[in-house]
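New here. Invent one.

***
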Amino acid sequence: MPRDLAEGAMVVNFLSRLDAWLGKTLFHPPIILACQLTHQSQHAMSRALWFFACCHATYYIRDDGWGWAVFMWFWTIWAFISATAFADWETRSMGWFRFLIWSLIMLEIPAMLMAGHIRAAAVRDVIILFAEYAATIKTIPPRRKREAKTRAQEARI
């Protein structure tokens, strides 16, 4: 294998491992908790978060012209239909798309530092990342009940 291809494969391997680690460490625990508390599947949570991201984008698109506003309204309506009618259908998440969103967040950081506040695009990108990482979860484990632990401790006394 040529050296350039080997280095490229190492970079791709590193990025995919970093993506998996970020998902399992930062995004999966709150998504799993939200799924357990709301009794929703990870696919329904992904679609609901996409709908929320569309609503967020539609609110902030008002200054960009009518064309973008109409496009966002149609996308928001589609996201609403998808979140309600097809909530538990399997969703897919692609690594290149998550990489794109991470890249957009990295580009927003200097702008946020110069502006001194969090920009709406960065918030929307984080919501989209939560939606995409929700789609990567295979199964939602059952919620551990605290009551059973306290009852067991009382029974021992």
